[in-house]
């Protein structure tokens, strides 16, 4: 995917049900750590959640010690955060990659959610009935690039829900790509 996007130098990602922001911030950190050339690209991570209150915390990028100890490698903490008393604050270059907004998945997706390269819809579909899951996944299919990637939660599957995606497995990572038309 990176090779295909090299000419435009643009990458658009959506992290849904982002809660207090750990997922989109981690995505940004891992991208810059793995692909330093992305600092010169237009990388946008749309981070959405149903709760405006939790999005306020996400936008702040401030976490306590317990929160940063939950799965964040020490080298990423030291590289991308600044200690502020008893808290840790994400650096501005990471925070600037993220656009937080309120979104209810059962409603129409915003216009800027077209041609998405990567979609993270992890651990959220489990809260919907099968018909709503199908509707959401069909709309994701309409929003994702033809060579885009969709990541679901480890316990989630599209079996008997949506047939618009092919399941792929690379290095133990399961993801979905839109079926070729």
UniProtKB/TrEMBL annotation:
Might you name a Gene Ontology BP term for this protein? methylation
Enzyme type, top EC level: transferase
Matching entries from Pfam families are given as: CheR
Q: Determine if Isomerase is one of this entry's keywords.
A: no
CheR-type methyltransferase domain: residues covered: 1-180
Q: Which UniProt keywords apply?
A: Methyltransferase, Transferase
Assigned EC number: 2.1.1.80
User: Which GO-annotated molecular functions does the record name?
Assistant: protein-glutamate O-methyltransferase activity
* Name of the protein described by the UniProt record: Chemotaxis protein methyltransferase Cher2
Q: Which gene encodes it?
A: cheR2_2
């Amino acid at each position: 995917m990176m090779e295909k996007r090299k000419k435009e130098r643009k990458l658009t990602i959506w992290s849904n049900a982002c809660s207090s922001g750990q997922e989109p911030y981690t995505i940004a950190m891992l991208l810059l750590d793995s692909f330093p050339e992305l600092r010169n690209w237009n990388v946008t991570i749309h981070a959405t959640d149903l709760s405006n209150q939790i999005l306020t915390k996400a936008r702040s990028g401030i976490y306590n010690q317990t929160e940063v100890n939950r799965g964040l490698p020490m080298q990423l903490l030291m590289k991308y955060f600044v200690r502020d008393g008893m808290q840790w604050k994400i650096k501005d270059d990471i925070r600037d990659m993220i656009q937080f907004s309120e979104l209810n998945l059962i409603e129409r997706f915003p216009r800027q959610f077209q041609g998405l390269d990567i979609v993270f819809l992890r651990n959220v579909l489990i809260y919907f009935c099968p018909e709503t899951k199908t509707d959401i996944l069909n709309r994701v299919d309409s929003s994702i690039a033809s060579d885009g990637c969709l990541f679901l939660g480890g316990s989630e599957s599209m079996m008997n829900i949506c047939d618009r995606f092919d399941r792929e497995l690379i290095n133990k990572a399961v993801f979905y790509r839109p079926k070729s038309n």
